[in-house]
Amino acid sequence: MKNKKRIIILASVFIVLVLVFKLILSYTDKPAVGTVNMPKITTTTLPQINVTPVLLSSQYVSFDYPKGLKIDSKNKPTGPIVDDYLFSYSDIEPWNLAISIYLIPLGGLSDNNAYQLRKINPTQYQQSTQVVNGQNVIIMSDKTISYYNKVAFLVHGSYQATISLSGDDQNGDSTLVNTLKMILSSWTWKLD
Tell me: the pLDDT tens digits for 126-137? Predict the structure, then answer.
């Protein structure tokens, strides 16, 4: 009888263990259910230059330039240069703006070395002309580089201005294009 009781107890324990095992298997055999938290995707805005116009006025000219450009220096004029300015801006890539006013007694661009260098190299430089405030402005673009690079030449009697703007902006060329437009459209000779 003792053996019978033992067998019944062992059989009962075995049956309970099998049932518990089946119950455990039924829970582990199902797909897991849970929540996946996705990281928040934030759009980063790229830094942009402050394009609020600032007036610069000298005895020769006045013009607007973007407030975000820093005046690096006002060079002491030498030789035919009577006024000279250097500006810069940098986000990831730099911008450079150089404006020089020349006194060239003969008054033609044929006496302007910066213009002549570009004119004799048409494979590198493309010339275009814009009329800005009734004045013809010759603009030379460097075709061999991947970033924005334009030089504008303005003539007023015996005076000439060379406006050189180059830069690589991570937001595209539109702000550089608008900067040159701002300078040219606000340009006023103060020599009359």
Answer: 999 999 988 899
Counting Cβ atoms within 10 Å, is residue 51 exposed (0-12), middle (13-18) or buried (19+)?
A: middle
Q: Which fold is adopted by the domain 53-189?
A: Jelly Rolls (2.60.120)
How far from chain centre, in Å, is Cα 104?
Answer: 35
Cα–Cα–Cα angle for 26, 28, 29, rounded to 5 degrees: 65
Rg (CA), the chain: 37
Lowest mean pLDDT among 60-64, 77-81, 181-185: 77-81
Inter-residue contact 121 to 98 (CB < 8 Å) = no
Q: Which two tokens stand for residue 124?
A: 């590198």
What residue type is assigned to position 127 of the chain? Q
Q: How many C-alpha atoms does 179 have within 13 Å on its Cβ side? A: 31
Rounded CA-CA distance 140/127 in Å is 5
